[in-house]
Amino acid sequence: MDYNLAVIKGDGIGPDIVDQAIKVLDTIGTKYGHDFSYKEVLAGGAAIDATGEPLPQETIDVCKNSDSVILGAVGGWQWDHLPGEKRPEKALLGLRAELGLYANIRPAVLYKELKAACPIKDEIIGDKLDFVVVRELTGGIYFGKRGQGKGENGDYSYDTMMYSEMEVRRIAINAFDIAMKRGKKLCSVDKANVLENSRLWRKVVLEVAKDYPEVELSHLYVDNAAMQLVINPKQFDVIVTGNMFGDIISDEASMITGSIGMLPSASLGNSKLGMYEPIHGSAPDIAGQDKANPIATIISMAMMLRYSFDLEEEAKAIEVAVEKVIEEGFRTIDIMSEGCIQVGTIKMGELICERI
Ligand code: IPM
Ligand code: MG
Fold first, then answer.
1. Listed residue (18, 95, 23) closest to 62, CA to CA
2. All domains of the chain, ordered by start, with CATH?
3. Annotated catalytic residue within 159, 177, 251, 334
């Protein structure tokens, strides 16, 4: 099969890690007889420098016409002074909205060989931690009405958190479907003790639950969820939550695994077109130095093969290759520990290709 991919390398370490991900995809293509073609487009800081806009129309068009989008990372200190609408992050938000990618899937997995990097005590973690955060991605306070003005207490500004039933229902269905394929346990995170839109969220989740009698559903307020993630993360299998809470909870989830450089993500909508990226940022301080860990981006390619192209065997081949390389003791600097072999970004990519 032929697959047309839009590639946004982005800023900072984005180009370093995406190059390795493409190498891995090409290796898969050769082995399994697929043809991946790539169209590189600009977004984020790189696009601001080249065109003055974080998300040029051409980028949106190419992405919409592709089979899926590969993204490295966007942002950096160079563009921090820009107003909200012109910042590199606007590219990410714009792409999510333009492509209708309302479901953000962020697995949090502890690799047993990397347990030393996990900041939580052994007796709490045990030897396995494997859950997934399903974050609503195109609604809530990120996309609500916002504004500013001058009042008697000085300047004011506001952002509105709004959800419609439709938006909650579709992300809930998505999360229940994922739960059915995993441990059949779903925790919905909201702030229904305070927020009106969280009460709607909870009502709709409960309605959707009627279609999934096998799934054990629970609800947590977001503050409690943040605490539970630290004191008893093993209780979670699938977590579903809104855009803002999901942003925060998913960073926490990734950090408790100690593997922020290892974790992939998928952003999905109603079609097969998805956007695949590592959950970490652009790390401008180590850009272009062959230091970045490409594994999160490489495993994101496995998610793409699985979710967008239904290529389960190929997806597994990538995941197994990554596990092997880790088992054999190869580490990029971010996950390096005593007795292991330190390698750079490019070497890590090569090792994974060889194992495939
Ligand atoms: C993320 C990031 C983005 C978000 C930023 C960079 C706009 O933190 O993908 O989690 O807040 O969604
Ligand atoms: Mg975030």
1. 95
2. 1-105+271-356 (3.40.718.10), 119-256 (3.40.718.10)
3. 251
